[in-house]
Specification:
The protein is mainly alpha-helical. The protein has one domain: MetI-like fold. It has 12 helices and 2 strands, in the order αββααααααααααα. A hairpin with a 3-residue loop joins strand 1 and strand 2. Belongs to the binding-protein-dependent transport system permease family. Its main location: membrane. It holds the Pfam family BPD_transp_1.
Length: 295
């Protein structure tokens, strides 16, 4: 049965409506605010053009220093979280794919269920685990006669705590995406590779990975975007410390808007953050789907 253009348009209308209401309008409004001297309490203080952006990008003022520090922290977290959240998730998926049917369902559930936990609960658990005084990990270390570690008050331990919480919390989602992709790989390709004498690594590199490459690139992109939006873990576990070394871009934007009462500057920071994310995503997309020159 054919669906008329009118019916198909009506089915698309809810998505378009929500896209306009909850993305397009807020984005355009935020862009508008970023060109003004705007406070949360006092409202619009007048048009300032690109002044907010210039102050953020020009050295020698607190907005530049805080933004660049947060940008560096965020990029650092993106880099250190990429391998655990993508490669380890793929390894988990490969292991689960080779488990018998009923056990496969069990382990998929076990690894995915943590994703349903709120960031507040996850942060509370890992803050207790890594607390310097009376924390579970330090108690274990002391039980073995080792010195305790100030996990949340020193680097690189603070990042280790944040990374551990993030991996435990979100790796299951990426794993499920990879498991579903692996399920779609044609078994006849593995059989042909085995007949040609391919070992496990050769089967993975020449059969499995090319078949799931699109999903791998997609998972990498959404992981980078998610890591760029780091907020809850650092806010609740390390509070941006020690010495603002885990202060993320989202945290500094929130601090600029609500603590410093500067909505215009915070909006400009958010727009710049979005531009950086779009640029990085575009680079990932182009690299991930570039044509093979030898094909």
């Amino acid at each position: 049965m054919k669906i008329s253009k009118t019916v198909s348009s009506l089915m698309f209308l809810p998505f378009l409506l929500f896209f306009i209401l909850f993305w397009m309008i807020p984005f355009l409004y935020g862009l508008y605010v970023s060109f003004h001297s705007w406070t949360v309490s006092g409202g619009n203080g007048g048009f300032v053009g690109l002044d907010n952006y210039i102050r953020i990008l020009s050295p020698g003022n607190m907005y530049h220093d805080s933004f660049m520090n947060a940008l560096g922290n965020t990029l650092y977290f993106v880099v250190i979280s990429l391998v655990p959240l993508v490669v380890f998730a793929l390894l988990l998926a490969l292991l689960i794919e080779n488990i018998p049917g009923k056990l496969k369902v069990f382990f998929r559930t076990v690894f995915f269920i943590s994703y349903a936990v709120s960031v507040t609960a996850v942060s509370a658990i890992f803050k207790w685990l890594f607390t310097g005084n009376g924390g579970y990990i330090n108690n274990v270390l002391q039980g073995f006669g080792l010195d305790s570690i100030g996990w949340l008050n020193n680097q690189p331990y603070a990042w280790i705590a944040v990374l551990a919480a993030t991996v435990w919390w979100t790796i299951g989602y990426n794993m499920i995406l990879f498991v579903n992709a692996l399920d779609e790989v044609d078994d006849s390709l593995y059989e042909a590779a085995s007949l040609d004498g391919a070992n496990a690594w050769q089967r993975f590199w020449n059969v499995t990975f090319p078949s799931i490459k699109g999903v791998f690139v997609f998972v990498t992109i959404i992981t980078v975007i998610a890591s760029f939006n780091l907020y809850g873990q650092t806010l609740l576990i390390t509070e941006g410390g020690p010495a603002r070394s885990t202060m993320s871009l989202t945290m500094i934007i929130q601090n600029t808007i609500f603590s410093q009462n500067n909505l215009g500057m915070g909006s400009a920071m958010a727009i710049l953050m979005g531009i950086i994310m779009v640029f990085i995503t575009l680079v990932q997309f182009l690299i991930g789907f570039r044509k093979d020159d030898n094909a």
